[in-house]
Amino acid sequence: MKQPTSISRRHFLGSIGKVAGSSVMLKAAAAIGLTMTVSGCGASNASELPPVTPPPTDPVTPTPTDPPTPPPAVNPDPRPSDWPQGSGNNRTVTILGSGIAGMTAAFEMNKLGYQCTILEATARAGGRCRTIRAGDTIEETDSVQSCQFDNDPTLYFNPGPSRIPHHHDLLLGYCRQFAIELETFTNENRAALYHSTNAFNGQPQLARRVIADSRGYISELLSTAVNQNALDQALTTQERTDIIEMLKSYGALSPNSSYTGSNRAGFEGQENTGGTGRNTPIAPLDLTEILNSDFWQYQTSFAETINQQPTLLQPVGGMDKIAKAFEQQVADNITYQAVVTQILKTDSGVRIVYQDQTGSDVVVESDYCICTIPATVLKNIDADFSPAHQNEIDNFNYANPCKIAFQSRRFWEQEHNIYGGISWTNQNITQIWYPNSGFGRDQGVIVGAYTFGSNAGDSFAILSPQQRLNTGITQANQLHPQYGNEVTNGISICWPKVPFQLGGWGTSAANNLLNADGNIYFAGEHLSNLKGWQEGAILSAYHAVNGIVERDTML
Ligand code: PHE
Fold first, then answer.
1. What is the pTM of this model?
2. Cα 374 to ligand 1 centre (Å)
3. Which of 522, 516, 498 is CA-nearest to residue 370?
4. Which of 149, 204, 263, 537 could pair with 155 in a Cys bridge, judged by C-beta atoms 3.0 to 4.6 Å apart?
């Protein structure tokens, strides 16, 4: 079997330092005999190691890390079952925005006896929860695109939310209640690709090889450390034996604890063609190249995080099944094409002015307001918010993701055995998503870009829709050389340019906006501990409704 190119121990350690920090690096160094001994007299010392370079910034660094776990709440999160029936007593509420937060609030408050009016700026309910099919349009501040997909219900694109973690109970509860059919959504697919322009001569690598070989090399190194008694922690003989066995299993090590490759990585001949060779073992990838790549910075562990780990779900036929189901429940409450221009507090409640579809100003007075308008939009609306609220609105940051989608023959299934999941690249497109349903059909919709880092998002936002597609194709060709010849009917969305959204999801910490300003309450995913998730929008709606109900039931 072909052996991987050798890597100097020092280079290896430098790279480990980048990933794991210097203390791990020093322990690893000790394990392979590179550093000074405890008495400090060794020939080598750690300062000779290559400098630990800081992690690169965009586009490699992902922005959407989940927010840190909040401290335990004194009271558990409110649930609709906590709210007394009739607590609304016909009081009036104006809800600004018919996204998931606004519609959740209306749905629950209707049941409590509040009179709800939802003002929706567009002609459609759902906010960022929407699905694009043949003939739909995507409007941005300086462009309009019309979706050219074939007219087929399986050919759709979710430009906003697209996956639902299995523990997002509230959203999944509404799906059950509204009989929305769900299917699995795949984040991690071992037949998908990792690609970096900095490693493997820019050749994409099969996920199964990257993952199996990374685990193998790490396990071998740790076994060496354990065998040399190089860990700080004292291990009993039994623990040592167990850890060595655990590492053999975890990393597919040989009986002598070395890593020489594994059939977990597949076989020779299966790499790019999906061929049927199952006899010739495949040599492990070169460790230096794995370390040169950025795969390990977040891509290979993306699907480990609590909100991205299996099982994930999606509504059959498009995410807007959820928006439509909510809309059906609260249809009577919604005024469409009502663009809010003023939000003012009054002695007894709230006064909202909006422009209706004819351009006339309309005034609505109510006891309460729940404002779900994204902060990026709200900051330009005339309002008499307290300075603390206004200041937080003015400075609230948002992620600026861009997505591109194409219709295509399912070449990824037919030629590469890729059924759902994600390929990753360090180019600005960042991700390619393969459809998670309709397997075996001829045509599918492939998401050809989903940016996380802000530079990547900005790089697309400044382009015209056609230029975005061209760039998307050039970059995706690096992963799938046939891509440009296959994909067609492209369409894109850059969220910072979508009217009445002006951003993807909130990234700032919510503080003052969690408290009412007079009779104005705030909601939206950006004010939750699950920013960038529909579950967060629901949680934030519960928070606002709870504030109002508590106030009314204490009267
Ligand atoms: N929920 C969005 C997604 O899954 C945005 C997000 C990504 C939020 C990663 C947190 C972490 O793509």
1. 0.89
2. 17
3. 522
4. 149
Query: Which residue's CA is the closest to the ligand 1 atom numbered 4?
Result: 163
Q: What CATH architecture does domain 137-191+309-316+399-497 belong to?
A: Alpha-Beta Complex (3.90)
Query: Ligand 1, from 505, 526, 528: best to mutate by most atoms within 8 Å of Cβ?
Result: 505
Residue with tokens 């006891």: 367
Query: Is any atom of ligand 1 closer than 6 Å to the C-beta of 529?
Result: no
Average pLDDT over residues 65-76: 56
**Residue 445 CA, ligand 1 centroid: distance in Å:** 20
pLDDT score of 78: 87
pLDDT tens per residue across span 184-231? 999 999 999 999 999 999 999 999 999 999 999 999 999 999 999 888
Instruction: Find where tokens 């087929």 sit.
Output: 152
List the chain domain ranges. Answer: 83-127+321-397+505-553, 137-191+309-316+399-497
Q: Are 56 and 298 in contact (CB under 8 A)?
A: no
Contacts of residue 331, Cβ cutoff 8 Å, sequence gap at least 6: none
Phi, psi of 453 (to 5 degrees): -70, 150
Q: Give the residue whose CA is nearest to atom 7 of ligand 1.
A: 64
Ligand 1 mean position, distance from CA 468 (Å): 22
The domain 83-127+321-397+505-553 is placed in CATH, from the list 3.50.50.60, 3.40.630.30, 3.40.50.300, 1.10.600.10, at 3.50.50.60
